[in-house]
Amino acid sequence: MPVDHVCPHCQNRLAVPRRKVDVEFPCPRCGGANFIDKADYAARKAQAKAARNSNRQPAAGAGAAVGYDDIGAMLGAQGDAGADWQQPAYQYGGYPAYPSGAAAWSAGQTSAPRERVNLEELQDLILVPKQMVLMQVMLFVLLGPIAFGLGYWAASSSATVAEVAKQQAASSQAQSVSLQGEIKVPFGSQPLDAGAVIVALPVEAKVTSKLSARGLRPRDPIDAFAASQEKSIQALGGDVVRADQKGEFHLIVKRPGSYKLLIISHNGLRPAGERPSDIDTKEMSVYFDNVADLLGANQYEWRGIDFQEPMSAMSVRFK
Whole-angstrom Cα distance, residue 95 to residue 30? Predict the structure, then answer.
């Protein structure tokens, strides 16, 4: 039970925990030093006990118990053991202080308050309201599965995109077909037609910008072979190569289908005055800007070809 004590500095009435007896402590209101002597506390405790025992004995000649209208009246009738003892009320800042009168009892409090902890002892702690802790727990419970689901979805999407790209690359590689062969001319000191130009173009290609003859002509140096032209032809779905020193070549197109194949000899020339076929010139004009400049006086072959097998072989021999 707390010890009744009055601050000598500000007259604030305090309920001091018994562990503070014989220990100096500050007043929570004014901060003044307070001290309850252990011997004085023992004497006050014995006096209060004796007073309680004497009040329990009925007065001489009393034949019936005395009744009271309320607890306040009862405490007032008890003298020092009643009116002077009042129910402590909590005070912010440290020790509980007594209210005036018996209002604490009349308000319905039936037991002394629990011992309060001095806030000075908690100055190094961070106090968080219980509602905030519960709110954080609820947010964690709600957002945790959402965050996990988003992470799982992102990882699955990345894996799916990578797998689709891989499958597309594999499918493209599986669909691509190739043509390899050799080109020969029946005359001259070099029967193997090294440097011949071979171009494969899809029949249904949509040509928005015609190909330039420069860089594709057999008379152009090998090192001047236009890389930009090669990229343009491959963008249409075709391919272009030049025959090696053995007159051999290897074409690769993206997918099976119908193509136009143009082979321009490097060593073989057309007879003097012989012009390209009008039909060939018209068909080639769909792809090239200047067919006459492209062919020059060289022999050529313009034919349709179906790429179906993964790899096909052919041999071209100019007359």
Answer: 12
